[in-house]
Amino acid sequence: MSELRRIAEADPVLAHKIVDNAADENRMIDGSYRLGLIVTAILAAVVLAGAAYIIVNIGWWQTIVFVLAMLGVSHVLRVVLTGEWSDTSWFARFLRKKSDDDSDREG
Fold this sequence. Notes:
Blueprint: H1 2-10, H2 12-58, H3 60-82, H4 90-106
C-alpha cells in the first residue's frame, strides 16, 4: 500500500492503471474459479449418473470388476507411456517375476 501511495504521489495516472489492472485480474480469477466450480459440479453429476446407470444395467459385481480392470489398464498405459518403471509398483514386480521365470526355464 505504501508503495502504491508513493506511486500515486509521483504519477496518479499510473497508480490508477495499477489499481484497475489488479481489479481486472481479480475479476478474471473470480470468473475462472466460478466456471471451474460449475464444470466440476456438472462433471460430478454426469459421473454419478453414469455410475448409477452402469450399476443398474450391468450389476454391481460386474461394475466393480470393470472399474478395477480399467484402473489396471490405465496404470499400465501410464507406466508404458511415461516410462515410469518404479521397482515398488505392482507392474514392475509382475514383470520381474515373469522375467525371472523365463530365465529359469532357459537355463
